[in-house]
Structures are given as C-alpha cells and as structure tokens.
Design goal:
Its EC number is 5.3.1.23. Pathway: Amino-acid biosynthesis; L-methionine biosynthesis via salvage pathway; L-methionine from S-methyl-5-thio-alpha-D-ribose 1-phosphate: step 1/6. This protein folds into two domains: 140 residues, Four Helix Bundle (Hemerythrin (Met), subunit A), CATH 1.20.120.420; 224 residues, Rossmann fold (3-Layer(aba) Sandwich). The protein is built from eleven helices and 16 strands. The strands form four sheets. Strands 6-5-4-7-10-15-16 form a seven-stranded mixed beta sheet, with helices on both faces. Strand 1 and strand 2 form a beta hairpin. Helix 1 runs antiparallel to helix 2, helix 2 runs antiparallel to helix 3 and helix 3 packs parallel to helix 5. The relative contact order is 0.12. The protein binds 5-S-methyl-1-O-phosphono-5-thio-D-ribulose.
Length: 395
C-alpha cells in the first residue's frame, strides 16, 4: 500500500470534490483520516500540524478551497458575477496563507492560484462557475505535479550521490560496499503529495540498489523523525536506524567513511541558497562540513524563493513551549504492548516554570550546502555562489 497523507476525490456529476487528510498527530500508532471541507478546517489542521511539511501544507490549503468552492458550485450557491468569485478566492487564499509563516510553498501556491482566478475572470465569457472551475483544475494540478516532481528529485539526487561522492562511486562499482545516508525531520509521503523530497532521494537510492542503510534523527521537539520518517522507512522496508539529534556527531565520526551524504528538505530556499528547514538542520550542516560529508538540500522549485534575498529575511515560526516541555504518546503495557486504542497520555519532561525557546526552523547558510536537488536537476555553486534563476526557464 502506498502511503498517502492527502486523499482527494474530484467532483462527480452528483457530488462535490472531497478532501481527507491523515491526522499526523496520531501517527505512528493510529491511522485516522479527517475530512477537510472548509478553509477554516484546513487552516486549523495546518496550524495544529495534523498536516505538515512545506509542500503538503500548500496542497492541502489549495485543495481545501477547491472543496469549499466546489461545494458551492454543486449547491448552485455561486450566483455572483465572475469578478465576485475571483475576489472571494483571493480573500480565502490570503486567509489560508496566515496558517504558518516559514514554508514558502503555501505563499507560492497562493500567488499562482490568484493569477489563475484573475485570468479566468478576465475571459470574455467568464461566469462565476468558470472561474471556480479554473481554480479547482489548477489546485488539482498541484497535487498531481508534486508527486511527479518528487520522483524527479529522487532520481536526480540518487544519480548525483552516485556520481559525486566517493562512497557513491565505490558502491556503483561494488554492491558489497556500504552506502548510508542521514536525514532529518520528515520529507516523505507525509510531508508532500507523495514519494517525498529528501526521503524521495532515499527511496530512489534504495530502488537503484545503491543504499545499504538510512539513518533518521528523532527531530526534537516534535519528533517528525521518530514518529513519521521512521514510520515511512519501516513501511517501505528500507533498512534504517533511528538516532537522537544529539547522536549525529558520534554517527558521523563512526560512519563518516560510508556515509555518502546528509540529505534534508527545505521550507524556504532564499535566492542566495540560505535554507530554512527544521530546527537542527544547521547543526547537521556544520557537522557534515567538519567530517567531510556532502550536505544536500532536496526541494522542488516551489520552495525556492527568489523574492527573499538571504536567510536573514526569512521569518522563523516560534511554537508553543509545551512542545518542548511535554511529550504525547500511547501508554505501554508492562508486557511491552502499545495500547493504541486508548487515549494518548501527555507526559511532562521538564521543570515546571522554566522559560522555553522553541523555534520550529533554523537557517543553514549557503556556504555549508553542497547542492540543491530540484525536479529539473541538482544546482551546485559556481564560483562559490548558487544561481537559481535559470531553473525557472525550464519546464
Ligand atoms: O514543522 P514541519 O513538520 O512542517 O517541518 C517540516 C520540515 O522542516 C521539512 O523538512 C520541510 O518542510 C521539507 S518537507 C518536504
């Protein structure tokens, strides 16, 4: 079974489109899908991180509005003029954009969808229905494109590692040689429309028989690594080992010779290559440089923000202190059985009254990044600088 965090059904002759999301707060112990019918529901699901990951956030927001407007089409409630529908779409998109600030994919999707609505409303025969249908078709296209983009990212990344790392070249010659990769946070099917970015590279390396083992960090404080990436790796039968974030240096010291790369995702890549990603990414990049291991960012072009000059201009989301001071999960019986059907317990892990700083992301300077893997190829620095402009001339 293919893992899917986003289940979308287009409209049929009798029913409106529908959207369900996998509630990632309940993973890895419970697989529960939740209906999303309105922008308010999508906004809440994104803010609470029932759905998370830069591309997934953008797609769920886009599709939630498709569902909302699609229901109005079927119920024949869209009696207003084309221009009024365009305005409504713009307002709803702006509202959705306020759900989380750091990932650029949502802002990118909002910008593109506004252009779709504007263009549709400008057509000579435009009606409220035609504007709504143009919006719905564009949102649905985003879901489809994200999966094919991720597969391309996976292939480009796997080939780059094979050709540009000592470990990759060795493994290519002799499949008995070890090739391991470390990743951080969750960048897989749960964070995207499917397959994943950094986890897509791991999947592609595995499919090409180039990977002997993946390591994933726990990714404190939200544990996207231990809860979600570990779940995906186990699901796909990829040999994998979980480490806590603080073990990364020891791992690199021990496994440096067979660790081909650290591959991470991104929430926003600035024009100069500085990259905002899950907190802890910057430390891994420093470690990679110290140990002579390649550090790669895997991200679709929708994550590259040419409008943001450098990392200094990226807003970093700060989240609730309780994410650091408490942990939530199911109880475990004395015999080791996980009580998945009972309500999860919340456990306190810190001294009451302590102040907490909880930035959800950090910015890795471009200097520490060896390559940015996109769906149209891997960008490396030329004369010490990344240049992404030409990526957007390719289809
Ligand atoms: O806070 P999250 O879980 O939304 O953070 C997700 C990450 O930082 C991912 O690494 C990033 O969005 C890339 S997802 C393909």
């Amino acid at each position: 079974m293919v893992l899917q965090a986003i289940l979308y059904e287009p409209a049929s002759t009798s029913s409106p489109p529908s959207l369900r999301i996998l509630d990632q707060l309940l993973l890895p112990h419970r697989t529960t899908y939740e209906q999303v019918s309105t922008c308010e529901e999508a906004h809440a699901a994104i803010k609470q991180m029932k759905v998370r990951g830069a591309p997934a956030i953008a797609i769920v927001a886009a599709l939630a509005l498709a569902v909302e407007i699609g229901a109005m089409v079927v119920a024949k409630k869209l009696s207003d003029a084309a221009e009024v529908v365009k305005e409504r779409l713009n307002q709803r998109l702006e509202y959705l954009k306020t759900s989380r600030p750091t990932a650029v994919n949502l802002g990118d999707a909002v910008g593109k969808l506004k252009i779709v609505a504007k263009t549709a409303a400008l057509q000579p025969e435009a009606t409220s229905d035609s504007v709504a249908q143009a919006y719905i078709a564009a949102a649905e296209r985003m879901l489809i494109d994200d999966v094919s983009d991720n597969k391309a990212i996976g292939e480009h990344g796997a080939r780059w590692i094979e050709q540009n790392t000592t470990v990759g070249r060795r493994r290519k010659q002799d499949k008995g040689q070890e090739l391991k990769v470390l990743t951080h946070c969750n960048t897989g099917s749960l964070a995207t429309a499917g397959y994943g970015t950094a986890l897509g590279v791991i999947r592609s390396l595995r499919a090409a028989d180039m990977l002997s083992r993946a390591y994933c960090t726990e990714t404190r404080p939200y544990n996207q690594g231990s809860r979600l990436t570990a779940y995906e790796l186990v699901h796909d039968h990829i040999p994998a080992t979980l480490i806590t974030d603080s073990m990364a240096c020891a791992l690199l010291a021990k496994e440096g010779d067979c660790l081909a790369a650290i591959v991470v995702g991104a929430d926003r890549v600035a024009a100069n290559g500085d990259t905002a990603n899950k907190i802890g990414t910057h430390s891994l990049a420093v470690l990679a440089r110290h140990h002579g291991v390649k550090f790669l960012v895997a991200a679709p072009r929708t994550t590259i923000d040419l409008g943001t000059a450098s990392g200094q201009d990226i807003t970093i989301e700060e989240r609730a202190p309780e994410e650091v001071t408490r942990i939530k999960g199911p109880k475990i019986n004395p015999d080791g059985r996980i009580l998945v059907d009972e309500d999860a317990e919340v456990i306190s892990t810190a001294a009451d009254g302590i102040d907490v700083w909880n930035p959800a992301f950090d910015v890795t300077p471009a200097d520490l990044i060896d390559g940015v893997i996109t769906e149209v190829g891997v960008v490396v620095k030329v004369e010490g600088r990344f240049e992404f402009g030409s990526l957007f001339q390719k289809s």
